Task: structure prediction
Amino acid sequence: MAEAMAELHPKVALDVYKIREDFPVLGRQVRPGVPLVYLDSTATSQKPASVIEAMNAYYRQHNANIHRGIHVLAEEATAMYEEAREKVKNFIGAASSRQIIFTRNTTEAINLVAYSWGLSQLRRGDLILLTEMEHHSNLVPWYLLAERMDLRVEHVAVTAEGVLDENDFDRKLAMGPRLFAFTHMSNVVGTINPAKTMIAKAHQAGAVTLLDGAQSVPHFRVDVQELDVDFLAFSGHKMCGPTGIGVLYGKRELLENMPPFLGGGDMIKKVTLGAFKPNELPYKFEAGTPAIAEAVGLGAAIDYLNKIGMDVICQHEQGLVRYALERLREVEGLRIFGPSAEKKGGVVSFLVDGVHAHDISQILDQYGIAIRAGHHCAMPLHEKFQVPATARASFYLYTTFEEIDRLVEAIYRVKDIFGV
Amino acid sequence: MDDFYRELIIDRYKNPQYRGSLNPADISFEDENPLCGDHIHIDLRVDDEGVIREALFEGRGCAISQASADLLMEKVHGMHVDQVKRLSKQDILEMLGIELGPVRLKCALLSLKVLKAGVYGLGEATDDLVEE
Ligand SMILES: Cc1ncc(COP(=O)(O)O)c(C=O)c1O
Result:
């Protein structure tokens, strides 16, 4: 049995044990004698020492407010902040760093588009197209806007398999949406949507496109020019970076024509009493003192991911998810949500018959295994599957095959305890 | 290692003693925990003195929320509604005999929240009913 399992472990270029040494928290025990098995990277990833050190070094050596000060520290801090922007630009293949706007997270980036682009460009009765697979952060901003502006909202259906229904997509595009906002990868079932084709179709139908890259940018190569996407939103904390920093990428013409989102310092060129002239891109959208140390941390995270290689990371996760599905399918009474391995990233959502997801998670925690239980901020998708909650295990570059074995063993313990 | 899931909790989850509904009931109330979709509905029959004569619940959710509701219904049989108003988080924890983190505490306290909102005749169950 053990040998058969070992054969399933594919040989990959990534040295996962060496990588694990880069992540201090992965060495800890959650209780005496119980090592951590962290399978919750979809919620937030762990951080390598290089990211933590980069932020420490920023505060120890350079800290100053950026853009205005004329002294050494201010100049260094400004250069470090702008260097991080440059790294983000290169990481996603953007044409110019002016198209990289720092936000707090994916959620804020999507809200920025809703309030700035949406409020200025949409008219009463316009249609916004979303999907049933979205995280609440790509639903609620649009619902708020729809209420305020009297817009219509439609959703592309998800099939029982957990992928977007192509026919339904075509049907809804034919209704003439002004905007199509969708996730690149589902945070619940892991489905990777064929973004390039979908964006091309949406453009043909005359829609502006927004891609929620919260789960894609951390896990595989995303190139905004190749995708031809109009807006891309993602979070630093899910890609080895710190919390408090996210990114909005936008096409130049769109961003130029959008009014500011938040008002304050840094986003203006000139203020007279009663009037202001907005600053240039990207500063027009970065009001107030930004998260400077966090931007530096995100830059360090990008360096780290580049050093390992996004293609290698993606390949490692593919191996993990294939193995996880294979092992979990052995477990009687375990229901897996979502498509087969080749259509998805490193996320597996499941339930054990007769056991609530919370109870699964609680028992797994006794074995040091951190998974997530709940609706994962995607209540509509759970409604579709007719379950209130699921248990979700998710993987990243530091996840090992042994950890998946530990997960499966612990699931057998859940079954014992509940007698199912 | 699995102290958390005391036999009592698993047993009352799988074989509840106070599951059901009362029609008519003197007091009915329901609510859910939006975090995990746990749902509890409680029906009570109260006599002229204000003593609870019958108490049943319906619901779905995790073992903690359902076992807690079942044990709570048992506990309040024969209790005066004024005593019910004084039940606290501590009473529930003692009843369950386990320690709970902040997330699971919400599961455990859902039934008490519903019960108290019902006996107080409130329109809505709020967290301050079960926090001290
Ligand atoms: C697909 C998806 N979109 C958006 C978000 C929201 O990210 P944040 O909370 O960092 O704004 C998440 C986070 O879980 C996500 O998985």
Residues 2-124 of chain B form a domain with the Sufe protein. Chain: A fold (CATH 3.90.1010.10). Strands of chain B lie at 27-33, 38-46, 52-60.
